[in-house]
Amino acid sequence: MSDKDQRTFIPLPYERMSESEMIEKSRSFADSISKRRSVREFSTDPVPMEIIENAIRAAGSAPSGANKQPWTYCVVTCADLKRRIRVSAEEEEFRNYHGRMSESWLEDLEPLGTNHQKPFIEDAPVLIIVFKKIYDQEEPTGSKKNNYYVNESIGISVGMLLTALHQSGLATLTHTPSPMNFLEKLLNRPANERAYLNIPVGYPKNGTEVPNIHRKGLDDIMVSYI
Ligand code: IYR
Fold first, then answer.
1. Does residue 26 line the site of ligand 1, with CB under 6 A?
2. What is the pTM (predicted TM-score) of this model?
3. Tag placement on the chain: N or C end, fewer CB within 10 Å?
């Protein structure tokens, strides 16, 4: 494709809705997404791969710096690979919970009941492991070209992924093993990719409980300048 072709503009597919329809949709979406919770106990039941693919398609439509789409979504269902990921994650997390995390950090995590054990990595039928591409390699020279606003771009994309999975009826956890470079090695990722998140996906285990957290109200998070 020439530069000129890339600059071609096309009509925006857009149909304006009535205000009442818009308001109803906005209310119903906010109610539905507010029910999303991070789940730490998963059923081992398999999930339809088509849902995972559609959610990744949704994530791939996110806006990104200069449209570089600096993300790779790795989908892991292989039991042996999940086991090796769990072993490495638990090794790192053991060090975190037993010395690397500050007292106040541990206190903040207390209400969530987390510890170094991560059975959900093996129980969840699917792990979506997200990598950010800090640069792209140009063909055919292989020279490095930096990407832009990579953290912002991938954060938006993952938000869309979580939203898509939730509205499809699946539960997720945004798991952040730290450090997570073992994921780059275990998944054999190229040098331009850095592990960003491990997202176990599946059905919540029967009878799972979640922490009784409080969400800030609109008055706490919205400031109007009229
Ligand atoms: N990564 C650790 C610790 C942890 C940190 C935060 I901030 C959380 O919100 C939850 C957990 C772990 O996965 O246990």
1. no
2. 0.95
3. C
